[in-house]
């Protein structure tokens, strides 16, 4: 794949940061499930947390290609840490695409300073793939809304200063009744968080339910018009799913790199196992799949950077789905190459395999991605 000089330099700078600050703590974060606040600070100093913030709000005016590069590079050693770099995307996008100028002027300069954690809250216990089934209510009361309900899985919400949260303002079912609100969980009475989910992988990235008990939110915090929340969520997902594809590519590349080193060093039958064709073919298949997924991810990023929303919608689902399926296959094969040692926590490939599983599930399951793709094909 070819990249501009600027993109290559950016990749190199992220690579150096990863080698120095992320690789040494990747296994420890998985083991302890601790949220690495030092990376929030570091990624903020480097401009990654605020990459999407346009120049006029004090940000570096980054784009989807740059976000994919950052997430790919960090994911080679830890996709959970890579998620930190991208976590503000899902808050920023609804504001950029649906919010008011006042909202952009109020919140984006704060994020532009770096080191600020935000989140999005869409899912509920009964509303995962089917976003329109959400039940959280927002009742208009003078110049405020009163929010009641429960959100599920919210990534980083427990650490967040601001969350864009979907709630039902209309009585009818379906997408039209869903609106987006900015809540400030540390300041607004009535917001509380449940137990940290204990996950198989992506440890160190907190997911918790959010409980809303008569939370008063000023009407000025409604993002866009009433009833536009579903569309805002979908646009945010369209712009984040390619970065999950990139994260998956990085994860798979990290597993392949580990396998190449191990296969050369590990000897059986008086030869390094890399000399056996059975192993060589597995390595070759890994490389083919990774390169194909990478090409799809950056083609998708190009569509996003050109503002081609229709093409982005299709390619985002393809990049997320294909990339994560490749990550699952490659990391599973990586454990096989490492044999018994691969199944132990002394080597990174078992963690990579656990992390890969989530990439097929979050940000819309791969079955949902196929629904999106098939609908577009059959339109
Ligand atoms: C299953 C879905 C893909 C589609 O759901 P629906 O069938 O219920 O909705 P549609 O009829 O397709 O659309 C309704 C309405 O919205 C407009 N729309 C649809 N897609 C887009 C888009 N990409 N961009 C903009 N607008 C869009 C569509 O045109 C319709 O409007 P009109 O009627 O034409 O005016 C969807 O529900 C889906 O993707 N489900 C998966 C959800 C998911 O990924 N969840 C994981 C979120 S993970 C996360 O965010 C972490 C935090 S957390 O969850 O709290």
TrEMBL record:
Residues annotated as domain Acyl-CoA dehydrogenase/oxidase N-terminal: 4-114
The keyword Cell membrane is assigned to this record: no
Highest rank taxon of the organism: Bacteria
EC number: 1.3.8.10, 3.13.1.4
InterPro entries on file: Acyl-CoA_DH_CS, Acyl-CoA_Oxase/DH_mid-dom, Acyl-CoA_Oxase/DH_mid-dom_sf, AcylCo_DH-like_C, AcylCo_DH/oxidase_C, AcylCoA_DH/ox_N, AcylCoA_DH/ox_N_sf, AcylCoA_DH/oxidase_NM_dom_sf
Catalytic activity: 3-sulfinopropanoyl-CoA + H2O = propanoyl-CoA + sulfite + H(+)
Cofactor(s) needed for function: FAD
Key words of the record: FAD, Flavoprotein, Oxidoreductase
SUPFAM superfamilies for the chain: Acyl-CoA dehydrogenase C-terminal domain-like, Acyl-CoA dehydrogenase NM domain-like
Family affiliation: Belongs to the acyl-CoA dehydrogenase family.
Segments forming domain Acyl-CoA oxidase/dehydrogenase middle: 119-215
This protein's name: 3-sulfinopropanoyl-CoA desulfinase
Ranges for domain Acyl-CoA dehydrogenase/oxidase C-terminal: 227-378
One Pfam family linked to the record: Acyl-CoA_dh_M
UniProt KW Kinase keyword: no
Organism: Bradyrhizobium daqingense
GO MF annotation list: acyl-CoA dehydrogenase activity; flavin adenine dinucleotide binding
């Amino acid at each position: 794949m070819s990249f501009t000089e600027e993109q290559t330099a950016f990749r190199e700078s992220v690579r150096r940061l990863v080698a120095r600050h992320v690789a040494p703590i990747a296994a420890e974060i998985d083991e302890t499930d601790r949220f690495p606040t030092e990376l929030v600070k570091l990624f903020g100093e480097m401009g990654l947390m605020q990459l999407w913030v346009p120049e006029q709000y004090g940000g570096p005016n980054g784009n989807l290609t740059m976000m994919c590069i950052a997430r790919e590079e960090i994911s080679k050693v830890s996709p959970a840490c890579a998620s930190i770099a991208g976590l503000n995307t899902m808050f920023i996008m609804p504001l950029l695409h649906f919010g008011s100028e006042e909202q952009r002027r109020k919140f984006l300069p704060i994020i532009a300073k770096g080191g600020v954690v935000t989140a999005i809250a869409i899912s509920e216990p009964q509303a995962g793939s089917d976003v329109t089934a959400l039940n959280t209510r927002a009742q208009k009361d003078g110049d405020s809304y009163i929010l009641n309900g429960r959100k599920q899985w919210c990534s980083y919400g427990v650490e967040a200063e601001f969350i864009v949260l979907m709630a039902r303002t209309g009585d009818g079912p379906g997408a039209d009744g869903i609106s987006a609100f900015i809540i400030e969980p540390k300041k607004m009475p009535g917001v509380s968080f449940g137990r940290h989910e204990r996950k198989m992988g992506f440890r160190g990235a907190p997911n918790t339910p959010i409980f809303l008990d008569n939370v008063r939110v000023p009407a000025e915090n409604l993002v866009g018009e009433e009833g536009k929340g579903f569309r805002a969520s979908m646009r945010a997902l369209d712009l984040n799913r390619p970065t999950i594809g990139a994260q998956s590519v990085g994860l798979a590349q990290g597993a392949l790199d580990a396998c190449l080193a191990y296969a050369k060093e590990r000897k059986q039958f008086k030869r390094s196992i890399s000399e056996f064709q059975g192993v060589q073919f597995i390595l070759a298949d890994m490389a083919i799949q990774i390169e194909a997924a990478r090409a799809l991810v950056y083609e998708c990023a190009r569509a996003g950077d050109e503002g081609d929303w229709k093409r982005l919608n299709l390619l985002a689902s393809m990049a997320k789905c294909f990339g994560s399926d490749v990550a699952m296959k490659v990391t599973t094969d990586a454990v096989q190459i490492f044999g018994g040692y691969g199944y132990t926590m002394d080597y990174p490939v078992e963690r990579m395999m656990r992390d890969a599983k989530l990439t097929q599930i979050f940000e819309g399951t791969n079955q949902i991605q196929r629904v999106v793709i098939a609908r577009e094909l059959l339109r």
